[in-house]
């Protein structure tokens, strides 16, 4: 009899534990949804709650950091509201559009723009009179003059540029080409959406590219973490063969006997192939993931996840190619800019953001964004010092020296040439940062399918910022 009672008690306890587990799982998912996923659903253009808000609230304006209007409202002959973008193509990807769907700031801050913090008496008065309240205005971190400098610096048909303030994470400029006019997107929708040029893609945040030699920042850091030294030397005779795979330096240039710093400045593929083969298993992946590869970033806009795909038992050829930025690695310009910003900020990676503050229609502050770190102590101060020394050598004695020969500011960077097809056509990269002693800027530029130098474009952007 006792055994039967014990068995029954055990079954009851098992059922209780199962229900308790299910309850905790449901509660955990609810917390996760509220913290991580809720904004995505709240700001969805098809959310009926948002549609209801639009019936009662006039969408707020979007402005640049200096007050320049980037998005506002106008009325047509039938007294119907429609959205106007006074800057046209210049801010098209980052600000976005509200016709034929939504994108950019318009999408990711949809609920903020349709929330009204007008004086409560005015809101009650409008509700009684059947009038709409005015939504809040968003003051962004974007600098119009720097945005124009980035736009003009992209000299190819396709490309992207992004600029970040390292100590805060403020996105100062974000440009993607080819661009489009959000004022006429409805009329031109078919040609824009069906274009093979992916016109609607924000290449600065969502474009995934092989990083080319800009990835040597990650490889060099891995080598130093694996016990390597800045004084270690490598011999380069223009090419290097391991098994059936041969690596060539640009134009088959023989760099001779060089230190790690020299190899970095000269962007020597031979040296970095040897470095890659010398690394302990897994350290290159660990370092890349420390720098946010393979990690989803929850920012106030969509950013594609940069991908590092080197397994534990890869061929020597794959390891060699990956070490100098080819292989299967894919990155966004945002990712490479964040790496440069982290080095500039003494090893702390700040969370990039676009909305600096929210104001009501009377210009009264509702909320101000506080800078937050995405990841603290990503790099030690010693690693920061060594990376700065190598990146400085790129612009003083290395592959970017001609671009920065007239610089009146102190620049650091890494160039990159990335093959993207079997025909060995190339994209041109530059990622880096600069300071004039008072302020600092991190910049990343990619020019697609070109023989031009992205370092020239980066110099123009930095010079515009400091001037």
Characterise the protein shown here.
There is one protein chain. By secondary structure, the chain is an alpha+beta fold. Among the domains are: 1-42; 212-354 and 373-466, Beta-lactamase, CATH 3.40.710. A 6-stranded mixed beta sheet has the order 4-3-2-6-14-15, with no helix packed on it. A 5-stranded antiparallel beta sheet has the order 8-7-19-18-17, with helices on both faces. Strands 1-5 form a two-stranded parallel sheet. The radius of gyration is 26 Å and the shape is globular. The chain starts with a helix and ends with a helix. It has helices spanning 2-42, 48-56, 92-95, 104-108, 110-113, 120-129, 144-153, 189-193, 203-206, 216-225, 260-266, 269-278, 283-290, 316-323, 333-344, 381-396, 454-466; strands at 57-58, 62-63, 69-75, 81-84, 133-134, 137-140, 159-164, 171-177, 233-236, 239-242, 245-248, 256-259, 349-350, 355-359, 365-368, 373-375, 410-419, 426-435, 440-447. The mean pLDDT is 91. Strand 2 (62-63) and strand 3 form a beta hairpin. The chain is built from 17 helices and 19 strands.
- Provide the spatial order of strands within the biggest beta sheet: 4-3-2-6-14-15
> Level of helix content?
25-40%
Number of separate strands = 19
Mean pLDDT comes to 91
Low-confidence spans: pLDDT under 50, at least 5 residues?
none
Count of DSSP H/I helices: 17
The major pleated sheet works out as: 6 strands, mixed
CATH level-4 homologous superfamily of the domain at 212-354 and 373-466: DD-peptidase/beta-lactamase superfamily
């Amino acid at each position: 009899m006792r055994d039967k009672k014990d068995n029954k008690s055990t079954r009851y306890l098992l059922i209780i534990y199962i229900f308790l587990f299910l309850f905790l799982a449901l509660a955990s998912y609810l917390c996760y949804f509220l913290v991580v996923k809720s904004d995505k659903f709240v700001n969805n253009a098809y959310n009926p709650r948002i549609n209801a808000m639009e019936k009662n609230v006039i969408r707020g304006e979007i402005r640049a950091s200096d007050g320049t209007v980037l998005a506002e409202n106008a009325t047509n002959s039938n007294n119907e509201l429609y959205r106007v973008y006074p800057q046209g193509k210049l801010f098209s990807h980052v600000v976005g559009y509200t016709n034929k769907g939504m994108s950019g700031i318009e999408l990711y801050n949809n609920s903020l723009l349709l929330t009204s913090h007008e004086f409560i008496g005015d809101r009650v008065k409008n509700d009684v009179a059947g009038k709409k309240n005015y939504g809040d205005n968003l003051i962004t971190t974007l600098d119009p003059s720097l945005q124009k400098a980035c736009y003009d610096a992209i000299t190819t048909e396709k490309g992207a540029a992004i600029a970040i303030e390292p100590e805060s994470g403020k996105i100062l400029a974000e440009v993607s080409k080819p661009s489009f006019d959000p004022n006429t997107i409805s009329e031109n929708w078919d040609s824009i959406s069906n274009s093979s040029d992916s016109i609607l893609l924000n290449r600065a945040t969502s474009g995934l590219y092989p990083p080319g030699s800009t990835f040597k920042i990650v490889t060099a850091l891995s080598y130093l973490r694996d016990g390597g030294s800045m004084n270690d030397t490598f011999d380069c005779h223009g090419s290097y063969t391991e098994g059936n795979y041969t690596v060539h330096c640009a134009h088959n240039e023989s760099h001779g006997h060089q230190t790690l710093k020299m190899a970095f400045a000269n962007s020597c593929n031979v040296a970095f192939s040897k470095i890659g083969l010398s690394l302990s298993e897994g350290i290159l992946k660990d370092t890349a993931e420390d720098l946010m590869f393979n990690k989803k970033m929850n920012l106030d806009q969509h950013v594609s996840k940069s991908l590092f795909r080197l397994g534990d038992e890869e061929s020597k050829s794959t390891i060699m190619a990956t070490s100098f930025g080819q292989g299967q690695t894919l990155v966004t310009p945002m990712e490479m800019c964040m790496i440069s910003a982290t080095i500039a900020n003494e090893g702390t990676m700040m969370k990039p953001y676009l909305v600096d503050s929210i104001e009501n229609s009377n210009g009264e502050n509702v909320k101000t964004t506080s800078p937050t770190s995405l990841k603290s102590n990503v790099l030690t101060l010693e690693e920061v010092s060594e990376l700065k020394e190598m990146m400085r050598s790129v612009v003083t004695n290395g592959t970017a020296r001609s671009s920065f020969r007239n610089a009146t500011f102190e620049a650091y960077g890494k160039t990159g040439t990335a093959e993207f097809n079997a025909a060995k056509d190339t994209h041109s990269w530059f990622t880096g940062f600069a300071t004039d002693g008072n302020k600092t800027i991190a910049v990343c530029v990619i020019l697609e399918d070109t023989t031009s130098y992205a370092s020239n474009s980066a110099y123009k952007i930095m010079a515009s910022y400091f001037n």
